[in-house]
Amino acid sequence: PVDRAFAHWRWDQTMLERVKRDPLWRFFPDFPEIVRLEIEVARELGGVSAFAIAGSGGGYVQQSHYLPFLKQAFRWYDKEKAMFINASDFFADPIGIAKSVYAHLELPDFDPVKIRVRNAAPSGQLDEGARRMLAEFFQPLNEKLYEYVGQDFGWQ
């Protein structure tokens, strides 16, 4: 969730490139401040909630908290038939993960074709203070997620 929140913000920076040319943009909060504000609002409301920062899209914390989305999906789909994949595992070995998905779905063995990445967010370095703040916030939420899905993704 920490890296996902930062990747989401980096992607928004690409989408907002034209807006960022406005001289007033310099007054806009950076990622650590946006995260601090989102976490503050989430704690004040007693849980994760959307907190859109005007012009940024926002919701980086909320959209990186997976459990509410999964609980909603499993109102209609059988959780026991689901397969959970850690995105970092997929990015490290897309062909191997694809083969494991085929096996999970009981499809014939097939050698997928590796395709080039087309929509990666721009690179960037996550501020260590923001990383710690997000990791601390997500730690208890991640524990609940691990318990719910029966799988520990080892997110720090």
Topology at a glance:
Layout: H1 2-15, H2 31-44, H3 67-73, H4 87-92, H5 94-104, H6 128-149
Helix pairs in contact: 2-6
Describe this structure in words.
- The protein has 156 residues and is mostly helical.
- The chain has six helices and no strands.
- The radius of gyration is 18 Å and the shape is globular.
- 13% of the residues are buried.
- The mean pLDDT is 87.
List its salient traits:
6 helices, 47% helix, globular, 156 residues, single chain, mainly alpha
Q: Rg from C-alpha positions?
A: 18 Å
* End-to-end CA span: 9 Å
Q: H/E order of the elements? A: HHHHHH
Record field, number of beta strands: 0
Are there runs of 5+ residues with pLDDT below 50, and where?
none
Question: What can be said about this structure in brief?
Answer:
This protein has 156 residues and is mainly alpha-helical. It has helices at 2-15, 31-44, 67-73, 87-92, 94-104, 128-149.
